[in-house]
Amino acid sequence: MKTQNQKAWLFVLPVLLLVAFNALIPIMTVVNYSVQETFGNNLFFWEGMGWFEKLLHSDRFYSALGRQFFFTGMILAIEVPLGIIIALSMPKQGFWVPVCLVTMALPMLIPWNVVGAMWNIFTLPDIGLLGYFMNHVLGVSYDMTQNPTAAWATIIVMDVWHWTSLVVLLSYAGLVSIPDAYYQAAKIDGASNWAVFRFIQIPKMKNVLTIAILLRFMDSFNIYTEPFVLTGGGPGNSTTLLSIDLVKIALGQFDLGPAAAMSLIYFAITLLVSWVFYTLMMKDD
Amino acid sequence: MAKITLSKLRHSYYPNPSTPEDYALKEIDLDWQDGGAYALLGPSGCGKSTLLNIISGLLMPSEGAVLFDDKDVTALPPDKRNIAQVFQFPVIYDTMTAFDNLAFPLRNRGVDEASVTKRVNEIAQMLELTDMLHNRAAGLSPDNKQKISMGRGLVREDVNVVMFDEPLTVIDPHLKWKLRSKLKELHQKVRATMIYVTHDQTEALTFADQVVVMQDGEIVQTGTPVELFERPAHTFVGHFIGSPGMNVLPCEVRDGGAFLNGTNIALEGDIKCQPGGLTEIGIRPEFVTFGDTGLQAVVRKVSDIGRHNVVEAMAGDLKIRAIVESQPPEKGAAVHLNFQQDQTRLYRDGWVVLSEGGQNT
Question: Is A108 left (phi over 0), alpha (psi -120 to 50) or beta?
Fold first, then answer.
């Protein structure tokens, strides 16, 4: 017999309150802005789906979105394989394990805006270590403020420097949890190193890699501080990612309605991609 | 298939072993005949897995040699030795189907696809895996996964030896029995040398024709299950095999006889050993009976374990167990214990003492 006890709801209430204050209410205010127009003085006019329609027909939005996907795609394509390769080449035991782990973790401990500032100084053409080296030793013209390619290369390398460690640490955790018997069985079965990687290491790392890719996707798709401090979205609009564009609209132009509509679409894309990816990865389990 | 010889094998996990205690294996000399079913039995930490890994080539012994058909393979890696090993936990390749798992060792060795299919189907038939050959291996139950691990060992026809490292650890009790008889059946069919490592006496005794009992890195006794049961060479084997184990009773040896609490106990033969050392009488509970005369004792506990009763009696401070098929004596009753003479052994410092009239040495 099923016992009816409505008291259970009471126990869920604190979580509900917490979620309400840190997610639902802030999002609802954004939803509120997204369907209205305001000219300040707390005056609001109903706008309906107007901002959404305008946004979905604006080239500016699509080019920012394109840049955003390009950025995320690039850093995932570099960080995931690189992270796996580094994790595979790390020692499994002994003195060097903690040394490697701590060294790996260091970049992740640095605050985002400090990373941006560091790389900004690092790449200054005349006094930065990298900038000076490129321009005056190698003789390659390298100036982030002038050249879009240089700006792109720099924000991608910076992100790789900052976040590859996350993939490394997660992959490494997955690797060391594989019991020795698997490697021994593979040896006895005459498996090549590639087969060991393909049929043992990758499947056993699948779960941690899924989490790593998901985290890197969300973080890089929503990235703001680092490229903002480094390039400010320039030169021109060449590195204006979705988040940078959003802040320009919201705080620069003070168009709260369009900015709110853009936030919601931005959020929906992040959520959708994450959900599709996670569902696809987990469908075999 | 091959005969396997272990010659003066010693192994230590320390780089510079000095005392005998540093050795996980102390001087092993052993022959495994071609096509035999062997069990390596011993408690955890006795060195049986170390020995197994040395035979398979996963571990290089500190000293001594491993010979397959008199050819020294000590330095060869596992894939060059043509051996197979089944591990404690089922090792399967998660992303492959059951079929691909079984085919994996063959494909790695460049066998053509037609022969692979034929051989895999044969093995699957033997292991009753045919129905699930095209399922993903990750989704199978633990016993089927373990069957796939076994299958990967058996699928190569030229395999020298198949080794099982406590393969039933994660299998449900009611399936253990089934898999065990399956293994025995497989051995009769494929006739490969098989070595079965376990700490479970039932598994060892039901599987093997020859059981090797190990303790502290040494081989204590090698023999058929019957030999191990009837005439343990060492009190350790007496304790370890049998349920309950052998009664080992410290005794006094004088005037050519053995005495327990002053009562002379008839042994299987004459004592032929130097005096001194720790002498003990060993008698299996199965061969202890109650009579009107004999060693005086008081019944302390009677446990009904189903088919028979285990009676625990105290003769002074000696605890003696007896297995009784019929009506057992009451708790607290004063009884006289008789030991069946031809099953009463004498041990000196743990080892059985040679005596005239014994069936073997």
Answer: alpha
Residue found under tokens 């290089």: B60
Domains of chain B with bracketed CATH: 4-230 (3.40.50.300), 236-356 (2.40.50.140)
Instruction: Count CB neighbours of A111 within 10 A.
Output: 9
Task: Find chain B residues with C-beta within 8 A of A187's C-beta.
Answer: 58, 77-79
The answer to whether the CB atoms of B94 and A189 lie below 8 A apart is no
CATH fold for domain A58-282: MetI-like fold (1.10.3720)
- Contact flag B83-A188 (C-beta cutoff 8 Å): yes
Segment 186-225 of chain A within 8 Å of chain B by CB: 187-192, 195, 199-200, 203-204
Nearest to A187 among B79, B109, B136 (CB): B79
The nearest alpha carbon in chain A to B149 belongs to: A185
Q: How far is CA B289 from CA A219, B264, B268, in A?
A: 79, 16, 16
Residue B230, both tokens: 């009837």
Q: What ipTM does the predicted assembly reach?
A: 0.75
Angle at B307 between CA B303 and CA B309, to 5 degrees: 25
The residue behind tokens 């604190």 is: A14
Backbone angles phi, psi at B167, to 5 degrees: -75, -10
- Over residues B315-343, the pLDDT tens digits come to 888 888 888 888 888 888 888 888 888 88
How do residues B109-126 score in pLDDT, each as one tens digit? Answer: 888 899 899 989 988 888
Interchain pair B104, A188: CB under 8 A: no
The reported pLDDT for the residue numbered A239 is 85
Q: Does B104 touch chain A (CB under 8 A)?
A: yes
pTM for this prediction? 0.76
Q: Does A181 sit within 8 Å of B96, measured CB to CB?
A: no
Measure A98 CA to nearest chain B CA, in Å: 24
Residue spans per domain, chain A: 58-282
* Residue B244, preceding peptide bond in cis (omega within 30° of 0): yes
CA distance A15 to A23: 11
Residues of chain A with Cβ-Cβ distance to B152 below 8 Å are: 185, 189
Q: Which B residues 152-191 touch A at CB under 8 Å?
A: 152
Residue linked to tokens 């297995």:
B323
